[in-house]
Amino acid sequence: MKAYVYGPDGAAISEIAKPTPKGTQVLVRVRACGLNRADTGMRKGHAHGAAGGAGTVLGMEWAGEVAELGSDAKGVKVGDRIMGSGGAAFAEYTLADHGRLFHAPSNMNFEEAASLPVALATMHNAVVTVGGVQPGQAVLIQGASSGVGLMAMQIARLKGAKLVIGSSTDATRRRRLTAYGADLAIDSSDPKWVDEVLKATNGEGVDLIVDQVSGKVASQNLAATRVKGRIVNVGRLGGTHADFNFDLHAARRINYVGVTFRTRTIEEVREIFDEVKKDIWGAVESRKLQLPIDKVFAFADIDKAFEHMEANKHLGKIVVTV
Description:
This protein is α/β, with parallel strands linked by helices. It has helices spanning about 35-45, 110-115, 115-130, 145-160, 170-175, 195-200, 220-225, 245-250, 265-280, 280-285, 300-310, and strands spanning about 1-5, 10-15, 25-35, 60-70, 80-85, 95, 100-105, 140, 165, 185, 205-210, 225-235, 255-260, 295-300, 315-320.
């Protein structure tokens, strides 16, 4: 089968053996897959958790059909239309744990379905389970113009947030954030953004920040969060190291939590997928929660898809059809 593999000379489409499902695994005939920021690093040979390096089939989210079941796989049958996340997505066939997938709604095509699994799982966990958003609260999403950021704003709005703020350093994308749940769009590269947030919250700050940027905004986030507020760190697009105002953190008694899928067990990931199904799946099926697809590429043009992502001018998801 064809797969997009990182090798000694970089990533390229190669011929490899089709995998066989074992235990709780499901063999998926991939029809479309979504690009994510982590894929760009792995395409350059960087590790993502335990994954990466020479011989790695790249990609982490997909939509397709069940082709074969492992002996212990439950909840799906051959022919079911499904979507999910896991390694080795950029291929004609991939393996997935039976607890790490969703049934694709009948009103979605494969391209639309492939845009959702990572955003739904990541941001339901960050906004609801860990972030504990409550009706009437104020929420700030740092890095809101990414696919997961757009989903975070929509989930916050769905759960009753009274004020949703999204950040983007790109003026064109900032103007579009209101279509995906934002009441206020800010430029996190402008030092005055904290004042904008405080003004919008009557000087108190937001109840919750979901931070995909970190780096230089880390201490600014503390100043923009209310006393006894929460910051959930899900990324590091702004860098892995920065100054941190420990005194302000203590004074505002902020609960600062880091989350990532890289160190979670399969049992923890299954639980996250179950929570999405129990809590917000109706909104997925009704299309209240959806993402814009910026551009679709054929599998043969996957390198162009990555070039499009690295140009950093897109809003929403970049999808590759297989």
